[in-house]
Structures are given as structure tokens and as C-alpha cells.
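Model it.
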Amino acid sequence: MRSETLPRDAYLVKSVVHASRALTAFRTSGEALPLREIAGRSGLPKSMAFRLLYTLERCGMVEKVGENLYRSTLRPFKQKLFRIGYAAQGTDYQFSREVSVGVERAAAGEGIELISLDNKYNPKIAQRNADVLVREKVDLVIEFQTNEDVAPIVAAKYREANIPLIALEVPHPGATYFGANNYEAGLIGGRYLGRWAKQIWRAEVDEIVLISLNRAGSLPKMRLTGMLVGMKDTCPTLEHSPVIFVDGDGKLGETFEAMRRHLRSTRARWFIVGAINDPSALGALRAFQEAGRTDGCAIMGQNASPEGRSELRQKGTRLIGSVAYFPEKYGAEVMRVAIDILNHRPVPPAVFVKHQLVTPENVSHVYPNDELMSMAFPPN
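Modeled.
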């Protein structure tokens, strides 16, 4: 838990500082908040927040609304204009594009100056971008780069400059992590795969293929670990099926080539495939299609990205599901975390997004606007 240490100043009245913290918890006019939320936003102990609110109510600055809700009678304080650096993963994939759009929109909505750079999925560029943001003297950085080996180098640059860091999807030393609960997301997909294999194929599976992204490191790999555990949890006979790891680097083309090579070398007939993300899942599916072996595979993706959702809508697809991460919501949520850090409010070391299984049966319910968007913006 982070807490602000007040500077030593003989003229500073700490009670006024604490009261101002309580008042800044109210971010919009008319916002009614419970005591717990005010304490959380202000970083004050609950007992202190209660006494301050009682006093502020007596002074006419706060009013009680209902039994345990408070509302400020003052205009919300104008927050300091922060400068936040954002190093995007790249523009090659819809997932990272949606994250970037959300971050930029959320920053604009909060009146934050955003310094945006593109890591271009390249570790050397990520290091150069870190140097740029340090020179810009930003107040905080949101970093989205995938290479685990570079993470300590990038994090050290910000730590030496005393710049707080939020790391998206791949942990960086000393940073607040924001993103997937990888093991849980894997479990969700794996359990469904196991049930599918048990019900449709009566658990007759020759190979379990897990498509990895090795350079992303150990945490994203927990997604595959969770998937394997989930499969065997719902279909125990899979304990006897060999497990093959194929590194597709998280990309459709590379996964297609890697899976194509594997299919040429194996005699297995029935495969269940767990992929690190949807591009990997689609690359594997294309390899099975090319080999004329589509009926022998069942594939689970991760991210429920637009290209994955499009495939889920295809009749008879062998992509039987994908676990949603909702990257379109990342921007607003990570910006709230950033503002809390900058205002010295308590923030957990890891903030996880919510996950949901998306299948051909529920894809249009979970994402009802996809077809409207395709009509408004048809492909070229």
C-alpha cells in the first residue's frame, strides 16, 4: 500500500491537508460516496476519514445522503494537470490498438497531457522510448512492451528517474501490474476445452498442443499452465495425452508456419489446442485447414479479439471458444489506477481485469455491436 509522507514543515497544518484529501475524493459535482470509498480514494484510515467527514458536515462542506453516503457541497477541486507517458506495444494487432485508443480517450477525458510513443513490438525501441519519457520528465508512465528480458532495463530507467510505472500485461520490477489474471483466464478456457473433448470426442485425444509466446516470459505462460490444469480438471483421462509446446511468438503467420511443421511430423489424429492469444489460435486453425485435418482439432483462443470473434461466428468453426479480456475497457481502468498513484492513494501491486468465456453460442450476446460496426465500417 502506498501512502504519502508529508514533508517536514513547521507551518504545515496536517489536519487541513487531511481534510483536503477527503474533499478531493469527490471528483464530480453531486457524486455521493460511501465512507469506504472516500477512505480508499483519499488514502486515509477509515476512522480518520469518518472524523473528518463528521467535522466537514458540521462546517457545511459535506452533507450526508442516506445512511452511509456523503456528498460534497463544494465544487470539485480542480486536479493538477498531470503529464503521463504511454509507451504502446504496437499497432499490428487489434488488442494493442484497442488498448491505445482507450488510454488516449481516458487521458483526454481526465484533462491529462499524454505523451504517446510506439514500442513497435521491439525491445530496442522500448528502451529508447523509456529514455525519451525520462527526458520529458513525465509524472508517470504506462508501459506496454512484451519482452520479459527487457523489462528490468526499462523499469530501472524509470526507477532511477523516480517516475512511477504501470506495466500492462507483462510485469516489470517495481511496477504496478495491470492486465490479465493469466492463470485464471487459462483455467476458464481449459475447463471448457476439457468438457468439449469429453462430451464430443469421449476424451479420445491424441495430443494436447499449447501454443506459446516464449519471449513474453513466465507470467503469460501461466495462461497455458492454467489451460492445461483446466483441461485435466474436467477431463482427467487427458493426463495420458502427450503435451506439445509450439512457440508461435504470439503471431498468426509464425504460428501457422510452426504448426504446419508440427503437423507434418506427427502421426496424431485428434488434437486439442490451447493458444496464448487469438492470432496464435487462428494461425493454428489455418494450418489444420491447409492440411485438410480441420475435423481433428478443437482450438481455444485468448483475448476474444475482433478477428477471433469473427471466426467464432463462422459456421462449423473449430475455434470453439476464446477468453475475453475486454481491452476496450483497459484505458479508463488503467487511468483510474494512474490517477490514484499520482494522488498518493493506496493501489494494490496487481490490478486484474475481468475475464469471460466467449463461444460461438454467446459471442453475439457478449459483443452485440460487432455486426453494427462491420456494417458501419465494411472491410476494403
